[in-house]
Structures are given as C-alpha cells and as structure tokens.
Amino acid sequence: MGNSAGTDWLVPLPVQDSTMSLPNGDEADVYAPVVSPRARNRFADIFPLAALLQGARVANGQYRRFARLLASQGFVVVVPDHLRSFPGIPVPVRFSEVGVVTAVYDGAVAADRDPRSPLYRIIDTDAMAMVGHSLGGLVGIYAIAGVCDPQICSEPGGTYSPPTALRVGAVYGASLVGFDGGVIDLDTSRAPVALMQGDLDGIVAPAKVQATYPILAPPRALIALHGANHYGICDDNNPVGGPPDPIDPTLPQWEANFAIARWIGLWLRAQLKDDPWAQFWIYRVGGTFNGVVDVTAD
C-alpha cells in the first residue's frame, strides 16, 4: 500500500482516540498522536491542529479511519458532530457551518492548556488546518475566505472571521460551482487550499472541481484519485444519512481512505511544516508512480 501512496518515508505514529465538548455545544471525536506524560516536554507545541468538517447528514463517526490515518502523520484531528435545525424539518440534521472552525480551535486551545487533557501542551495552536468533505469542504472554503453566507453561517451580526491560526485547507468532493452553474468567486488568499476529488464522484462532478481550481489563490493544488467516488474519505461507501452516490467505486474503500489521508497529509505538511519530502511529492513527483493519484499544484 505504501508504494501506491508514494510515501514510504512516513513512519506512522501511534494514535489515541478521545472525545471533547466544544464551546458551541458540539460533541467531537479527537484523534492525536500518543504522547506519554513524561514526554510532553519533548513534544510541546509540535502537532498542528486539523478541524475535519463532515459532509451533509454524514455522522462524524464515518471519518474515523481517515482521521486516524491523518493523525498518524503528526496532526491533532478534531471531528465535530454539528447539528442544525431548519424550518419544516422536525429534527436537527447534520449540517456544518463556518463557526464550527472557530469552535474547534477554541476547544483545542482549552484542551492544550488543561493538564487533565490527553492533548495537554502537544498542539501547535499557531498552526491550524481545515479539512472538509462535500458540504464541509464548501463550508471550510467559506471560512477561509471569511464569508458568512446565511445558509452555512449563523454568526451574530452576520459576519465571520476565522482564527488567525488557520493557515491551510484541503477538501474532498467539494466545489464552488453553484446551482446555476456559475463558480462562486471567493478570496482564498488567507490560506492555500487543495481540492481532492475521486474521478468517479457522481454527486460533485469532477468538472465542477476542475472549474473551482482557477478561483483559488495560489499556492493551490488539484489532486485526482482514480477509482474513488464521493465517499472515498468515509469508512463506508454511501454511509447512512448522506445522499447515495449513483456510481460505485472501483478502488477499495480502505485504499481510498489511505490515499486521501496520505495526500491531504502531504499537502498540510508541505504548507504548515515546510516539510521538504512533502513538498517533493506534491510539487516534483506530482502523484503516484502507478497513476492512482495525480497532482496539479502551483
């Protein structure tokens, strides 16, 4: 599997699971490298924070495998379960919004300062990433742009400013193409964004992702995963709750999870850590030798 992802140099770190309650009331799953209490001084402020925003109506537990793989590359990954109420819908639904990014940051900062927390002192609170799936990816791009659209933002006063620590984004199965077919022009110059897409996505067509790429401010990346559909990032294809993808993947689910986590991790490390090996794979190699992953970056 390492050969297909092209990242044998990465030695995965052991990962621990926990949960936390965020300041906005969301419950969140947390995945972080294991650090013993006696080693905290050696690992102080070393692991960047990644907020993982769920797709519409998809439970946060569906991102467990991906989140663990991302955490094993040296990230603290927080996956909220955000519920919203809408007129005419009798029960709250899973539907992310831009304020979730800030809630993740504030919750992580509090945990990093709490001696009782497994995250105590290990988070680099000056280095934050946004990772989003589908609707969560759209929400995350709006958060980077600092735009409060009423459909995905309920901030007081109708304005939103992301945490200053938010320095990079990566989304899977998301685009800025609106219902009318036009591309929404957002200013993403605050943080580099990578678009990752399965070429068998039957919900967000690859053409929409390709149309989004020119809108993003450089540095930016477009990462194609061959054989994956819209739910390649989830533990299960067509998870309960989400709209089903009419196209079946040809890439096994676990392999799609692995490749998405590896290449999103490379993008995040290239931007947040100036990791020379990550930059080599993103900018020089530009994908895998077997053609499963193709990268365009500038």
Describe the structure.
The protein has 298 residues and is α/β, with parallel strands linked by helices. The chain has a single domain (2-297), classed as Alpha/Beta hydrolase fold, catalytic domain (Rossmann fold), CATH 3.40.50.1820. 25% of the residues lie in helices and 22% in strands. It contains 7 helices and 11 strands. Strand 7, helix 4 and strand 8 form a beta-alpha-beta unit. Mean pLDDT is 94; it is low at 1-9.
Instruction: Give the C-level CATH assignment.
Output: Alpha Beta
- The CATH architecture designation is 3-Layer(aba) Sandwich
Count of strand segments = 11
| Spatial order of the strands forming the largest sheet | 1-2-4-3-7-8-9-10-11
Q: What proportion strand? A: 15-25%
Computed over alpha carbons, the radius of gyration is: 18 Å
Unreliable runs: 1-9
Distance between the termini: 27 Å
Taking all residues together, what is the mean pLDDT?
Answer: 94
**What is the string of SSEs from the N terminus onward?**
HEEEHEEEHEHEEHEHHE
Tell me the domain tally.
1
Biggest sheet overview: 9 strands, mixed
